[in-house]
Every structure is written in structure tokens, then in C-alpha cells.
């Protein structure tokens, strides 16, 4: 599946009562911004390669965090990453992210499940860690 096929498939799809607003992002690599209904505050970004479909949501920027609580935040991020379904935590540049990856042969149903789960997990994480923001 490529980003163009994914755009077309998600544009008319619903999953668990959710719809998907898909917008291509211009750049060197094709990226889609997907807004899942009910989780508009946490857009999910998708890239498709020969080896994976990567879905990523930004949580917060390092500069938004209280510096004196960074160690505590990191410890809690590690603890929470194990029980969080279908999602992993990471950092890219200065941005903390939650992400998931699928096989490029995944069907649209699996991709929609990943998008809904990732958007919901991003909201839960933002609420859980709001006290760490400066």
C-alpha cells in the first residue's frame, strides 16, 4: 500500500465509529496527516516504505517540559510503555512521540485500528503527563 492508495481508502472509511480526515504533506518523502474523529488534537502522521507503515503522533516538545522533572518523566515514560497497546514511545529531535509500525502488506482494517489506537493513546499520554509541562 502506498500513500495515495491509503489516502483514497481512508477518505471514505469508518472504523469503530471514527472517520479519518487525510491530508498529504509536501516534502521529500510522502507523508500523510490523518485526523481521527474524536481525537482531533492529536493528528497522526503516516509514512509508507517498502518495509513498514510508520504511524506517529507528536506529544510535546522538550522545551515545553519542566527541566527539573525530566528524569522523573523519562522513568515514567519507560514504565508506561509496556502496558500501552500497539504503541511505543520515543523521541525524534526535540519532540517526544508515540508511534506504531505495521507491515506494508497490512490491510486497511489493521491500519485504521492502528490510527484509532495511536490517537487515543496520544490523548491518554498527554493527560497523564500534563503535570510535567512547564
Question: Strand-residue fraction?
Answer: 25-35%
Tell me the overall shape.
elongated
Helix content: 25-40%
| End-to-end separation | 41 Å
Q: What's the CATH topology label?
A: Yope Regulator, Chain: A
Mean pLDDT: 93
Largest sheet data: 7 strands, antiparallel
**Number of discrete domains:** 1
- Rg calc: 15 Å
- What's the multimeric state? single chain
Order of helices and strands: HEEEEEHEEH
- Per CATH, which architecture? 2-Layer Sandwich
Order of strands across the main sheet: 1-2-3-4-5-7-6
CATH top level is Alpha Beta
The total of helices stands at 3
Query: What structural class do helix, strand and pairing data support?
Result: alpha+beta
What low-confidence regions span 5 or more consecutive residues with pLDDT below 50?
none
Strand element count: 7
Features:
134 residues; 31% helix; Yope Regulator, Chain: A; 7 strands; alpha+beta; seven-stranded antiparallel sheet; elongated
Can you describe this structure?
InterPro entries: DUF2170. This is DUF2170 family protein. By secondary structure, this protein is α+β, with helices and mostly antiparallel strands. The chain has a single domain (3-132), classed as Yope Regulator, Chain: A (2-Layer Sandwich). The chain is built from three helices and seven strands; from the N terminus they run αβββββαββα. A seven-stranded antiparallel beta sheet has the order 1-2-3-4-5-7-6. It starts with a helix and ends in a 6-residue tail after the last helix. The model has no long low-confidence stretch (mean pLDDT 93).
Amino acid at each position: 500500500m502506498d500513500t495515495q492508495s491509503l489516502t483514497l481508502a481512508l477518505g471514505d472509511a469508518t472504523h469503530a465509529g471514527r472517520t479519518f480526515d487525510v491530508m498529504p504533506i509536501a516534502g521529500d518523502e510522502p507523508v500523510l496527516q490523518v485526523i481521527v474523529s474524536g481525537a482531533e488534537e492529536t493528528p497522526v502522521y503516516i509514512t509508507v516504505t517498502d518495509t513498514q507503515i510508520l504511524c506517529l503522533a507528536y506529544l510535546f516538545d522538550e522545551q515545553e517540559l519542566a527541566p527539573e522533572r525530566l528524569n522523573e518523566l523519562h522513568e515514567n515514560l519507560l514504565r508506561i510503555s509496556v502496558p500501552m497497546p500497539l504503541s511505543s514511545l520515543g523521541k525524534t529531535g526535540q519532540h517526544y512521540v508515540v508511534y506504531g509500525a505495521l507491515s506494508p502488506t497490512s490491510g486497511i482494517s489493521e491500519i485504521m485500528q492502528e490510527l484509532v489506537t495511536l490517537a487515543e493513546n496520544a490523548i491518554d499520554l498527554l493527560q497523564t503527563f500534563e503535570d510535567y509541562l512547564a
